[in-house]
Structures are given as C-alpha cells and as structure tokens.
Write a structure and sequence with these properties.
The complex is a heterodimer of chains A (126) and B (156). Helix content of chain A is 13%, strand content 45%. With 126 residues, chain A is mainly β. Chain B has one domain: CheA-289, Domain 4 (OB fold (Dihydrolipoamide Acetyltransferase, E2P)), CATH 2.40.50. Helices cover 8% and strands 44% of the residues of chain B. Classes of the chains: A mainly beta (126), B mainly beta (156).
C-alpha cells in the first residue's frame, strides 16, 4: 500500500456524518455573502451529495486555492491534524458506488469514521 | 454445532456454509466468501451512496463498508437491524460487510442436501439463490454470493 501522508483537515458535519477536506486545498473560510458574487463558482455540499432538500444550519464557504471557486459546507467543527495512525484506505465499494468524489483515504477516531472529500475530483467532475 | 444428521464426511463433495438470519429468513453464505464475523457497531453513514449502503465501520486498523442485504435482495423490511452481526465477505472483486440479525452456525453441507430453490421466494431474491436445504427442520436459502456481489457492485 502506498504511504499516506499526514494531513491537516477542515472538519464539518453533514446530517450526522463528519466530513472533511484537506486543508491544503483551502485558502480561507468565510461566511456566505449575499448575494454570492457572479465570478465565484460555489459547489454546494448538499448538491454534491445528492440531498436536494437539505437545510443548512450554519453555512460557511471554504474558498479554495483554485481561484474563483468555493465549497459551501455546514456546521464547521474543527481544523485538525489527522492523528498518526488514524488514516486508512476507504473501501473500494464506497469509492465505486458513491456519487461524490471521496478521497481514497479516510480518518478514524475510536469507532467514528471521518469521510474526506476530494476537492480536485469534485472540481474535475463538475 | 450442526445436528448429527447434518454432519458430512470431508470425503464427500460438500461446501462449508455460514447460516445467518435476516428478517426471520435463514440464509446461507458459502464459507469461502466469509472472512470475519463481527458484532454490530457504530456505522458511519456515507452520503452520496445508494440506500443499501449502510455506511462504514472501523475494525482494528481497517475501514469496512456495510450493506443492507434486504435492499439488494428485495427482502421485505420490518425495521432496523440492531444488535445484529456483520459478516465480512470478500471475493476478487469486492470486500464488504453484510448486516444480519444473527449468525447461527457454520458447518459443512453435502451437495446432495441442496435442492432447487422454492417457487415462493421473493422475485428479487430468486436470481441470487443457488438452492435450499433443511437445517434443524427449517428451510435455508443458499445464496449465490457471486450473483449477490455482482448486484452490489452494480449498485443494487
């Protein structure tokens, strides 16, 4: 198995699932402006995950390092380093069946698994 | 342990099977597919997956997917499967956990004990069945795991 590098993660919640993105892909975190500037392409998490009726409780924008793009997330929880020994490959079945691009790895704390979104894959796929 | 009349000599053609309960139906999985049996534990939901994917679990250094076979095999649901057992199955295409109500027993089944599937099986289940056999005078459905895994890989 290829070595998985240590990562810093931006962690947030969607329904009751903890999700994260690699902090390397994020330039800054901000509130959702109203209106959203036309030149900003926003990827809404609920749309990526195929949950059309989702109501955001505490929406935030993750402005990506790729200029002009942002990911709208909900319930920002933490920015944390994935602890050594807590990173594991995501099952092939999930990679195969998921409609959203998850990274090929995930992080676990105790029995709780945190799913990592692949920002590059999301941008490529849209 | 299996009843004495189920015991099969290893010289006879036969198959190791793991008998599980799902919605009061006895289902058998060939032992060659079974990797582990785990108690049910916290399952992390994975947004964006088909409904039959219950989520993922952490098991001693591995992340395993867990599926609900009822949705794959068109078995009517009467409620959530809680306090069940997770059977980790694997072939060259895929590895996943399947959540059952219970895992009853593993024993060697003689090929001669296997009979054709009964006609009363749910339509969605029929293509996933090799045959049936009797265990403690109860009918058991022997799953065709190659077909089950194919259906899972195709998204149910």
């Amino acid at each position: 198995m290829a070595e998985i590098p240590q990562k810093t993660l931006v962690v947030f919640q969607f329904h009751s699932t903890r999700l994260a993105v690699d902090a390397e892909a994020v330039d800054r975190i901000g509130n959702v402006p109203s209106p959203i500037p036309e030149q900003l392409e926003v990827y809404a998490l609920h749309s990526l995950l195929g949950v059309p009726d989702y109501v955001y409780r505490e929406p935030r924008l993750l402005y990506l390092k790729q200029q002009g793009r942002a990911l709208m997330i909900d319930q920002l929880e933490d920015i944390q380093a994935a602890a050594p020994g807590s990173i594991f490959p995501l099952p092939r079945l999930i990679i195969r069946l998921a409609s959203v691009d998850y990274a090929g790895w995930t992080a676990a704390e105790g029995n709780e698994v945190m799913l990592i979104l692949d920002i590059s894959g999301i941008i490529r796929g849209t | 342990m299996a009843e004495e009349n189920h015991a099969v000599s290893f010289d006879e053609p036969g198959t190791d099977v793991c008998i599980c309960t799902l919605e009061q139906t006895l289902l058998a999985v060939k032992g060659s597919y079974v990797q582990r049996v785990l108690p049910c534990q916290q399952i992390t939901h994975v947004p964006g997956c088909p409904d039959f994917v219950l989520g993922v679990i952490y098991v001693r250094g591995n992340i395993e997917s867990v599926i609900d076979l009822r949705s794959v095999a068109a078995i009517p649901k009467t409620g959530d499967l809680q306090d069940g057992k997770i059977l980790i199955v694997e072939d060259e295409r895929m590895r996943t956990g399947i959540l059952f109500d219970a895992v009853e027993e593993m024993f060697r089944l003689s090929d001669a004990q296997i009979e054709p599937p009964v006609h009363t099986l749910p339509e969605g289940l029929k293509p996933l069945v090799i045959g049936t056999f009797s265990w403690h005078e109860r009918p058991v459905v022997l799953l065709d795991m190659a077909q089950v895994i194919s259906r899972i890989c195709e998204g149910g």
